[in-house]
Amino acid sequence: MKKLGFVFHSSPHATASGREGLDALLAASAYSEDIHVFFVGEGVTQLVGEQRPEHVLGRDYISSFKLMDLYDIEQVYACQKGLEDRGLLDTPLAFDVEIVSSRDIASLMASCHHLLSF
């Protein structure tokens, strides 16, 4: 079976990219059991807990990332450098992720057969 990687690299409420990526991720889980999820660069801001998107007239889709557990998506990674660069290492996150180095993220991405970027 092909290994799919979903890469979230954009901030959560500036565009619909994150929400669309989450929808695609959950839909793909019905067809593939080997899914990896990566939060890199500006995408690590999607991990911040207790966001208030209603203040910018946005929809709170971040809490829906918790559904990954129900869909048996367990390989979820955040780039440590991305978190450090944005001062988010000590910030409570909205859901569980494994924080790994940039080198490990690159290696994990290279092991995926297909990468989808959001």
Structure description:
- With 118 residues, the protein is α/β, with parallel strands linked by helices.
- 23% of the residues lie in helices and 19% in strands.
- It has helices at 17-28, 80-85, 102-110, and strands at 4-8, 35-39, 75-79, 98-100, 114-117.
- Strands 4-3-2-1-5 form a five-stranded parallel β-sheet.
Average of pLDDT: 91
List SSEs in N-to-C order. EHEEHEHE
How many E strands?
Answer: 5
Rg? 13 Å
Q: Oligomer, anyone?
A: single chain
Notable traits:
3 helices; 19% strand; globular
Could you outline the blueprint of secondary structure elements for this entry?
Layout: E1 4-8, H1 17-28, E2 35-39, E3 75-79, H2 80-85, E4 98-100, H3 102-110, E5 114-117
Parallel strand pairs: 1-2, 1-5, 2-3, 3-4
Short description:
The protein has about 120 residues and is of the alpha/beta class. The chain has three helices and five strands. It has a five-stranded parallel beta sheet.
